[in-house]
Amino acid sequence: LGLNHMSVHYQPQVSLTTGGITGAEALIRWTDPEMGPVSPGAFIPLAEDSGLIESLTDIMFETAMRDMAEHLRTGSFYISFNLSAHDMAKSRYFDMISARLHELGIAPAKIAIEATERGFFDVAQANDIIKLYHEAGHSIFIDDFGTGYSSLSYLQHLAIDVIKIDKAFVDAIDTGSATSSVIIHIIAMAKQLNLKIVAEGVETAAQAGFLKLHGVDAGQGFYYAQPMPANAFLRYIDQDRDLADL
Ligand code: C2E
Ligand code: CA
Ligand code: CA
Q1: What is the pTM of this model?
Q2: How far is the CA of 117 from the centre of ligand 2 (A)?
Q3: Which terminus, N or C, of the chain has the lesser number of Cβ atoms within 10 Å?
């Protein structure tokens, strides 16, 4: 892995009530000198299998801090990071970012953690780690929600703050397919558990309208903005958008 060919892109998460930006998801980008851009969908699984994922996650965080530390100290938006199963099984990453944020003078609330249910080796163990983050003031997002176990009984025991409805359910909106009604139940369940809801992969005005109508808190997707390099993201925030609370 040519780590010097790595960068971070930022994709805004937008409040459906105010239209302002609540935060952004940090997405890893790797450009191979010969092959060009390589999709994270292709190399993240390889990094997980080979044990390189931990150093990748660390470099990812450090790169994002280089881009964003100044703006996270003063701005009110958060940046969310994707963690792998390895990162959710130990306190190693928590210890690292806690020390680093303290050094940089950044409040833990400015950093959110995205974890997938599939990415838990063991739910009880993952919850111990989730609690560490939660109690330190980080928000925990359950990523790709609806594609894993997703049962109410299991969710209510996790110290989580936000669910991210998977793109598959957003795609199904207004298609009349069986899947299209599932999202209504997911939203109702999340509300019953007092969780905030972010929908991912929003691509059309019709999807955005549906999500807003059903009380989803925030949206992320090409309809609002593509993932973009740090300078473009900071311009995007400055230019025409206000910041909002999730
Ligand atoms: P994810 O966490 O579900 O991230 C969302 C993916 O959907 C991103 O793909 C994003 O570019 C894409 N996306 C956003 N909006 C839209 C939309 O409106 N339409 C469509 N078709 N796609 C949209 P990306 O950047 O290729 O990342 C793929 C996956 O790789 C991520 O899925 C995540 O699981 C993983 N990943 C990315 N960065 C990291 C990282 O730093 N660490 C770890 N462990 N995994 C990462
Ligand atoms: Ca994610
Ligand atoms: Ca996702």
Answers
A1: 0.95
A2: 12
A3: N
**Phi and psi (nearest 5°) for 215?**
80, 20
Rounded Cα gap, residues 146 and 179, in angstroms: 11
- Counting from 1 in the atom list of ligand 1, the atom nearest the Cα of 8 is 41
Per-residue pLDDT tens for 142-178? 999 888 765 666 778 889 999 999 999 999 998 888 7
Q: Is the CB of 113 inside a 6 Å radius of any atom of ligand 1? A: no
Q: How far is the CA of 116 from the centre of ligand 2 (A)?
A: 8
201 lines ligand 1 (CB under 6 A): yes
